[in-house]
Specification:
This protein is α+β, with helices and mostly antiparallel strands. Helix content is about 35%, strand content about 25%.
Amino acid sequence: MLPRAPLLTARLCLRPYEPADASDFFALLDADRARYRASFPDRLQAVRTRADAAIALRAFAADWQSGRFYVFGIWHRDTAAYLGDICLMPQAQGRAEIGYYLATAAEGHGYAREALATVVNFGFQTVGSKGLLIRCYADNIRGQAVARAAGFQPEPAPKRPLWFQNSDTLGNVRRFWLPRAPEPPQRL
């Protein structure tokens, strides 16, 4: 089990949620529900009330302990303002997927790039992932720019069965992949 420790950047504190964060967590989601609906429908479905937010935060803590899912709230270090959320979900074959969102007011300040760079390091160094994946909708230009700025490269769309190739949703999703850098040779 990984310790539930914060990750600090120059401006941000990324930390696992605590029960006292439920009100801020709910308020951010509730304020931007329409904007998050397409990308985070499961989160919105699970968090309809402040009580649901408290349940979700307890589930995040249990997921952390099991190694299934690592979720960090993003706070500004100087103002203590809650800015958003970033998570890493380990998958098969050493891969992990990263998802993130910011409050509308927090966009355009470089916070997503700063948080992503830190979670990339967490994914490779702490979790031991071999590769990281980010999925963005084709019209999410900012999300794609954040992924590219962190070194992620577009991945070709996965092959789908013929009967599934007309799915607008999957065709509208762009995948970005970042492999773990090879270890430098050891000197003897």
